[in-house]
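User: I'll paste a sequence; please echo it back and then give the predicted structure.

Assistant: Echoing your sequence first, then the prediction.
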Amino acid sequence: MTVRVTILGSTGSIGQSTLDVIARHPDRFSVYALSAHSRIDLLAKQAVGTGAAVVVLPDDAAAVRFRAVWPNGVAMPEIRVGPRALAETAADPGCDTVMAAIVGAAGLPGALAAARAGKRVLLANKEALVAAGSLFMAAVRDSGAELLPIDSEHNAIFQCLPHDGRASAPQGPAAGVRRLILTASGGPFRTRNWSDLHDVTPDQACAHPNWSMGRKISVDSATMLNKGLEVIEAHWLFAMPPERINVVIHPQSVVHSMVEYEDGSVVAQLGQPDMRTPIAYGLGFPDRIASGVGLLDLAAGARLDFETPDLGRFPCLALAFEALRAGQSSCIALNAANEIAVDAFLAGRLRYTAIARLIGDTLDWQAQQTASVIGSIDDVLELDRRARAFCRSIHFAP
């Protein structure tokens, strides 16, 4: 019997890579449901090619578009519409594994629904942990869900830790582990001073030297806010306190992350900068399955470099550590402010160097608010809404 997979965000880069890996193992996996927000034509092609039983669309207009581009003579999948349908599909008994690959806070309800339903959750959505880490990990533990991180760094750490064949939520740091070391490429501005980046364009910020990613995550990589979010994720995924999580810049992106043990041993996971590797690991765990990724030629690379990140050059990384130490409300505000700031930058309404300023102002605002109790997803979404409203109230002048 095949493993039935639902892909939330199937038209994005992670979704497409997931479908590529699944297609290599037709006897092992089948696609149950797909979702997309805007690339409706591509979603229809994916549904035809995989025979998906269900598609989830954001609104009625998208559903009309989907029906219009659906080919004649081919059985149409069940069409579900709206955020509630997305969460219900993530929890649907028709699937076994859920790839949570929707970018941003919009992906949180679906990822949480999958965790509560006891699915194997392949987590590529950062916000599920950044904004709702305590809720999400509690859901995994309470339901007995399996949680496989798909971000290359967290997947690397997971591979470097001991396992008993099941991806359960940890109750505390793994025995014998001294610290986690996340690697970062440094992005396209690794060697440039912050003061020289005032006139950076979106295209320049999205020109990542090693990875092919969407525009939002590419900007996050350039600012290293992405790495800051990963630090917060690592805190929740591996029950590791902030002071035992480090970041090093590794321009070659060959070593994806490391685990240092108490005896001084450092275990690293290496590979090509191709997201199909962690996706295949998550789909097949505990087995290793073919991903389509080529051989790693270490001799051709010739060298592996590491350096400590300059927080003056990457102020967003410092802000993420600040938010993690301040608590979950600040992490929600950090993520909300970053989404608003990056969207404004990509639209040409905000200078690149103002992204960090806007995030910092939002964290300052959050610190002055009455302490919030984060007891439900509604609490998370309400604080997220308030933080976004504050960000939008700030004049985006350079």
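The mean pLDDT is 93. The chain is about 45% helix and 15% strand.
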